[in-house]
Specification:
Pathway: Purine metabolism; GMP biosynthesis; GMP from XMP (L-Gln route): step 1/1. This protein has 305 residues and is α/β, with parallel strands linked by helices. The protein contains eleven helices and nine strands. A hairpin with a 7-residue loop joins β7 and β8. α1 crosses α2, α2 packs across α8 and α10 packs antiparallel against α11. About 2% of the residues have low confidence. The protein binds xanthosine-5'-monophosphate. The site of xanthosine-5'-monophosphate has 16 residues, from loops.
Length: 305
């Protein structure tokens, strides 16, 4: 555990010292890591820092509005509407790693544009310790590690939280008065809903994943999961009214974990599962089945791709 007040003072001083009079940018995803890094860096740099939120269209329900409200106090905040460009970049892409790559590339392009406009010399990143470990092991190409610094020519990279675990980041977030909704927010992957959709990402599948995830988050809140969400798997036959439908299969996943490196599937009571099933199939005509994922990590990962 860190002493949060000392940590914040130390990092604010360090960031000021590293960046000096130059400009900096940070990609703000709304997750606890980048939000905390942005708040720390904004405290150090004020409007010398441009926090950039790219609306990829792969976010959860209401997320962009929440970000806009939470970070409204940062005058330099930029919100980039890039939904159409991301969907174009993902058209026909089915391989998981290619998907991550396409998202990462598009993200870099969006970000690069703002970095050039603001003449930023420094990049602030919300990288935390487990990100570095997983990237070193190449378990998965996390798009928030690497990527940006390799492509955009920055004078320096600032990673104030590179040695922290997730629960420590949450403590720092709370000490920075980041709203509880951010400090307690479930981790959400950089590539967003795209890694919860098997196969090609389409607007239709995104809509299903977004609405179903909203239901799951609401219904499973009392279980206090590390992450709970819905994924869109494939299609299967079902019956709605008098008709057979070939609808989506939605998987519900709810796990507990300390840091995301390992995880246990949560035991959820039958009634709750049935309520989730009925809300999801009820609100989406094109969903024919809801299944619950009982697999721990390992052997599964938390996300589906
Ligand atoms: P997995 O699926 O590898 O996920 O068990 C472990 C934790 O990492 C999150 N995750 C990501 N976060 N970029 C991120 O910022 C990514 O590409 C990414 N992939 C997975 C996942 O949500 C979980 O908390």
């Amino acid at each position: 555990m860190v002493n949060t007040d000392e940590f914040i003072d130390e990092k604010v001083a360090e960031i000021r010292n590293d960046v000096g009079d130059a400009n900096a940018v940070i990609a703000l995803s709304g997750g606890v890591d980048s939000s905390t890094a942005a708040a720390l860096a904004y405290e150090a740099l004020g409007d010398q820092l441009t926090p950039v939120y790219v609306d990829t269209g792969l976010m959860r329900k209401g997320e962009t509005d929440e970000i806009r409200e939470t970070f409204d106090y940062m005058d330099s905040l930029r919100i980039v509407d890039a939904k159409d460009r991301f969907l174009d970049a993902l058209a026909d892409v089915t391989d998981p790693e290619e998907k991550r790559h396409a998202i990462g590339e598009q993200f870099i392009r969006e970000f690069e544009t703002v970095a050039e406009e603001t003449q930023a010399d420094y990049l602030v990143q919300g990288t935390i310790y487990p990100d570095r470990i997983e990237s070193e092991g190449t378990i998965k190409s996390h798009h928030n590690v690497g990527g940006l610094p390799d492509v955009v020519d920055f004078e320096g990279i600032v990673e104030p939280m590179r040695d922290l675990y997730k629960d420590e980041v949450r403590e720092v977030a709370r000490a920075l008065d980041l709203e509880e909704i951010i400090a307690e927010r479930m981790p959400f992957p950089g590539p967003g809903l795209a890694v919860r959709i098997l196969g090609e990402v389409t607007e239709e599948k995104l809509e299903v994943a977004r609405e179903a995830t909203h239901v799951v988050e609401e219904e499973l809140d009392e279980y206090d999961p590390w992450q709970a969400f819905a994924a869109v798997l494939g299609k299967a036959t079902g019956v709605k009214g008098d008709n057979r439908v070939h609808g989506y299969v939605v998987a519900v996943r709810s796990v507990e974990s300390r840091d995301g490196m390992t995880a246990r599937a949560q035991e959820i009571d039958w009634e709750t599962l049935q309520r989730i099933q009925s809300r999801i199939t009820g609100q989406n005509d094109n969903v024919s089945r809801v299944v619950y994922d009982v697999t721990h990590k390992p052997p599964a990962t938390i996300e589906y791709e």
